[in-house]
Each structure stands twice: as structure tokens, then as C-alpha cells.
């Protein structure tokens, strides 16, 4: 089962890189070099994901007397990618569609409850950004991202189930 999961991950990365490349090229053709540079920076941060995997750093606790806490760097990476996406999605319509590969990242990095919240917020933000750029909210702009988020979520959950080893029955 490892091969299909690897293929899916590669497909998500290729999709993200392709969408980023198309958006950057579009911005260069429109003489919006600053937005294209932002897209290139986002590509670098996205590509740095393996450096953030499963590492933690100590951070000061928010309450007195608690010492330090641990933060997974993958969460920091996801926050940086999301912030970069949000800025670019507001700056130019072609970047809005990068939300969909990011949904896989949410489902991969975060616990399920947080991922579902993130998927909802990211999808809603993509709908609003697309409608803002289009000048109106249309049925396709509302339904399309919602259906895509549902499909991505179900696919990611299915992949997670495939990658989890089955439990062996307890012998009496």
C-alpha cells in the first residue's frame, strides 16, 4: 500500500508546483513582478517542508511557571505557507487555487479536529477570495471549492486509513 500513497503525495506536490508556476508566469506576463516574487518565495517555503518534518523546538510557555513547551516545526511551516497563500490569494486570482493542494497539507500535518477546522477555513477563504476577484459570488465559485474540499478530505482520510496497519485480534 505504500506505493499508492507515495504516488498520491507526489501528485499533490506536482499539482502545487504546477499551480504555483502557472500563477507566477501569469503574474510575470501581467508585469506584476512583486507578486511573482511572492509566488517564488512561497514555492521555496513549500519546498522546505521536509526540513520541518517531525522536528520540535522549545518555546516559552504562555503561563508563568510552566517553563517551556514544544512546537512542531511542521505547524510553523504550515502557518508560513498558509500566510503566504492568503497574501497571494488576495493579491492575484491565480493564487487562489493553491488552496486545494494545501488542504492535503492540513490533513497530513494537523490532528483531525484541527485539520477539519483548517479545511473549512481555507475552503471558505478560497471561495471568498475567488468571489472577490470575480466581482460576484456565483454558484460554481461556491459549489466547486466545497466539493473539491470534500473530495480532498475523503481521499486524505482514505489514504490515512490505508497507511495505518490493521489491528490484530487479541488472542484469548
Any overview of this molecule?
This protein is mostly helical and 172 residues long. Helices cover 73% and strands 6% of the residues. The chain has a two-stranded antiparallel sheet. Strand 1 and strand 2 form a beta hairpin. Helix 1 (2-29) packs antiparallel against helix 2 and helix 5 (99-109) runs antiparallel to helix 6 (112-134). The longest helix is centred in the first third of the chain and has 28 residues, at 2-29.
Write the layout of secondary structure elements.
Elements: H1 2-29, H2 33-47, H3 49-52, E1 56-60, E2 68-72, H4 73-91, H5 99-109, H6 112-134, H7 139-163
Antiparallel strand pairs: 1-2
Helix pairs in contact: 1-2, 1-5, 2-4, 4-5, 4-6, 5-6, 5-7, 6-7
Keywords: Membrane, Transmembrane, Transmembrane helix
Transmembrane segments: 7-29, 35-52, 73-100, 112-132, 139-158
| Secondary structure: number of strands | 2
Largest sheet geometry: 2 strands, antiparallel
Q: Which sequence of SSEs, written as H and E, runs from N to C?
A: HHHEEHHHH
Q: Note poorly predicted spans.
A: none
How far apart are the first and last residues' alpha carbons, in Å?
A: 30 Å
Number of domains: 1
Question: Treating each run of at least 4 consecutive H or I residues as one helix, how many helices?
Answer: 7
Tell me the β content: 5-15%
Strand order of the largest sheet: 1-2
Q: Mean of residue pLDDT? A: 84
Structure class: mainly alpha
Radius of gyration: 18 Å
- Give the CA-based shape: globular
Portion in helices: over 70%
Transmembrane segments: 7-29, 35-52, 73-100, 112-132, 139-158
Keywords: Membrane, Transmembrane, Transmembrane helix
Amino acid at each position: 500500500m505504500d506505493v499508492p500513497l507515495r504516488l498520491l503525495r507526489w501528485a499533490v506536490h506536482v499539482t502545487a508546483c504546477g499551480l504555483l508556476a502557472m500563477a507566477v508566469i501569469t503574474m510575470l506576463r501581467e508585469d506584476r513582478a512583486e507578486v511573482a516574487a511572492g509566488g517564488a518565495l512561497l514555492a521555496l517555503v513549500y519546498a522546505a517542508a521536509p526540513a520541518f518534518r517531525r522536528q520540535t523546538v522549545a518555546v516559552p510557555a504562555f503561563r508563568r511557571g510552566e517553563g517551556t513547551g514544544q512546537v512542531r516545526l511542521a505547524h510553523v511551516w504550515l502557518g508560513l505557507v498558509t500566510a503566504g497563500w492568503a497574501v497571494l490569494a488576495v493579491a492575484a486570482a491565480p493564487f487562489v487555487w493553491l488552496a486545494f493542494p494545501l488542504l492535503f497539507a492540513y490533513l497530513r500535518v494537523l490532528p483531525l479536529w484541527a485539520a477539519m477546522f483548517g479545511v473549512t477555513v481555507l475552503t471558505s477563504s478560497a471561495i471568498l477570495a475567488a468571489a472577490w476577484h470575480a466581482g460576484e459570488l456565483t454558484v460554481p465559485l461556491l459549489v466547486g471549492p466545497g466539493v473539491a474540499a470534500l473530495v480532498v478530505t475523503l481521499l486524505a482520510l482514505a489514504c490515512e486509513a490505508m497507511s495505518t496497519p490493521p489491528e490484530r485480534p487479541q488472542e484469548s
